[in-house]
Design brief:
- The longest helix has 15 residues.
- Helix 1 runs antiparallel to helix 2.
- Strand 11 and strand 12 form a beta hairpin.
- With 216 residues, the chain is mostly beta strands.
- The protein is elongated.
């Protein structure tokens, strides 16, 4: 009789959050002439004593003196994009799964030379009703960013975990990548790897969890 051992299949839903710093720049522009025109108009009208001058001076001054407020909205975007979902494959109880999560990209189009930091967090992976035997906790989920895989623009780029040896568990949010742009917009991409250790007591099933990247 052939024995078949059931494996554990793990999938991840990747969630990306975006920080969008927005600055409101108020530029007040007034057509010249409210106070000066009123003074000149009424003064001239009073001295000249003509109704026409009074009408022209007062009316024109009122119309010309109306100020126009221009409030342009300047959006300085700092964005992060991630794949929608990824299948991490299957493994045996007591073993590990190591799989690429696809490409994560940070784009910084803000003014100046501000820094940015991308962080990553995870939920437990569960199957069924999520009993202890149906849960792979975040203590069993490790992450490493790897190096830069694509980039544009000038700036510094620092991987949080450049190699597999530097991987960290996702029991709390960790730094995935950081950088600082220079005078022009920059983008930075990496392909992180998730390493999941499957408990020896894990029930068979398809486990799902959420990996969230954010940038600020």
């Amino acid at each position: 009789m052939r024995q078949v051992s059931a494996g554990v299949i793990v999938t991840a839903t990747l969630a990306g959050t975006t920080a969008l710093p927005v600055a409101l720049s108020a530029s007040l522009s007034a057509v010249p002439g409210l106070a000066p025109a009123a003074q000149a108009g009424t003064g001239t009208a009073a001295q000249a004593g003509t109704g026409t001058a009074a009408q022209a001076g007062t009316g024109t001054a009122a119309q010309a003196g109306t100020g126009t407020a221009l409030v342009p909205l300047r959006a300085d975007p700092l964005t992060i994009t991630v794949p929608g979902s990824v299948s991490l494959g299957s493994g045996s109880r007591g073993g590990t799964i190591s799989a690429s999560m696809g490409t994560v990209t940070v784009t910084d189009s803000r003014g100046g030379i501000p820094p940015w930091t991308a962080t990553v967090s995870a939920t437990n992976f569960t199957t069924g009703s999520g009993t202890p035997a149906q849960t792979i906790t975040t203590a069993n989920i490790a992450y490493w960013s790897g190096p830069v895989t694509a980039s544009s623009g000038v700036g510094t780029r620092n991987p949080g975990e450049p190699t597999a040896a530097s991987r960290v568990t996702l029991t709390s949010p960790v730094v995935a990548f950081s950088g600082r742009k220079q005078a022009t917009p920059m983008s930075t991409s990496w392909q992180p790897t998730l390493v999941i250790t499957i408990p020896s007591s894990a029930a068979s099933g398809v486990y799902t969890g959420t990996i969230t990247h954010s940038v600020a």
